[in-house]
Amino acid sequence: MELLPAIRKSIIAFVLLPALLYAGIPPTLQSDASQRMTKDIMNRAYITPKRIVTKYAGCKNNLIKDEHYLLERGNGQSEMNRKKCCIMTSTETEKASLLLDFGSELHGGLKLVMGSSSRREPSLVRIRFGESVGEANSTTSNTEWKVGFSTDDHAKRDIIMEIPRDGMIEIGNTGFRFVRLDLLQNNATISLKEISAILRYRDIPYLGSFECNDQRLNKIWITGAYTVHLNMQEFLWDGIKRDRVVWLGDMHPELMTISRVFGYNEVIPNSLDLACKQFPLPDWMNGMSAYSLWYLINQYEWYHQTGDIDFLKKHSDYISGLIHLINGKVDDAGNETLAPARFLDWPSSGNKAGVEAGYRALIVWAMQDAHQLSLKLGNTSDAQLCLDIINRMKKKILPHNNLKQAASLMAITGLMDPQQACDEVVSVGGGKGFSTFYGYYMLEALAKAGEYEKAIDIIKTFWGAMLDLGATTFWEDFNLDWIPNAAPIDEPVPAGKKDIHGDFGAYCYPGFRHSLCHGWSSGPTTWLSDHVLGIKIVDVERKQISIEPHLGKLEWAKGTYPTPWGVIEVSHEKKADGKIATKVKLPKGVRQI
Q1: pLDDT tens digit string along 219-261?
Q2: Domains of the chain by range and CATH?
Q3: Could you tell me if residue 261 is left (phi over 0), alpha (psi between -120 and 50 degrees) or otherwise beta?
């Protein structure tokens, strides 16, 4: 197999690393830079506010003036002339405040460019970052997670600090769209030349794309892609405001999206490497046996999409050790003792019987993929051991107990007929009972049953509802039952309305602790590329792909799909007789089967 472009780039980068590391660094620092310096791999951009949501200028409306200057794009430089500044004043009894909207969810912080003050001393301000207007206005409760309150325990987002009279200052490192600034200093006036959001992101091209005659689907596809993009920091995170941890289960939908949108990216192998260092065998990944199962599934999917056999070989000992660890916990009758705690996703937690059935299906899925990995690694004994584990697990197939998560996994793994799974539970109620994480696997179950039209309708209903409520990225959790009488995230909540952010959530994400940019919610992006565009890598070693579009009610769809050999381009158009006319442009050497 020829060397993958991404691997070639990695080798070149390794050879040139010393030169790249020192490039542009002052000679004074170069002598011992290798011991003490790490270059930031992330890019930065400054974003001007899009609008002012609310302001409090006192009972006489005289505490804030010229705030419109903050909406003008600046140069980031403090200036002596002190012109074109927003003026904020506070008295003993009244404190000026502004709530700014930067237009989209961002990861990073805030830059203030000052234009002087009535005091020589620094002035006290309160800065609150929010993924919603409600969160930016919220009260913080770090001692107890509860509905109606926000938290600061992962990414500091409620900050009381002093800002200088002149010059500039940068604050914060979190996920946000809105920022509220309160001038707390008594009897003070400050001049603000600029308030800019700092976007911290990977500067990578969107190689994959999706477009059809339904704009709602187009927006859903790109929103899922952007959700994952923001979580591609130094490592792959679950959410930019929350844990900011490499979670192996959360990684699977993210990995699938990354491979359809960006193609090969080092954030996946780097994150898998880190996870193995953090959780050496016999520990479970993230302390949960389910996430060790997802590790195996992730390894299979990454190899299937990239063909990176060297990375797979690097993990061969861990993969083999994990297979043997699992084998020792499954007896001949199909009983397993992987761990007393079961986890699929949070919304399913109350259905213990259903979770048990789904968890067993997840074991089967992991062993199916581990079987293929072992064959690729030439480890035939481990490959056979995986089949043995699967056969033992099949001796005890449990009912799904009307849990969509469980039935979906059972359909995906062949433990249940996909049509039966959809008829009995997955399709029932449409998007009711869907979740942002396992919704992807519910869509996959629908695809296995040939229910493409139903799946598209659910994508538009469930994920589309988040867009209707102001989302620019997809959320950690969502429930269609939350919608009635709920206000969107991008405006103050009117009296008598529910706050879609602060008044809902459960488990570890009640209220404003709920992440509104969570990578595991990006499933529709992958699904639309795989099933509407219909592009799939069949055999990465033989450069074989398949194209089987399913347009449902759509008139046309087109897009691109990254592969290790280049980008595939397709367009599909439904003719008057219902047949689909397809045009395909393949990279050199790629064969459609």
Answers
A1: 999 999 999 999 999 999 999 998 899 999 999 999 999 999 9
A2: 5-39 (no CATH), 44-201 (2.60.120.260), 209-476+515-536 (1.50.10.10)
A3: alpha
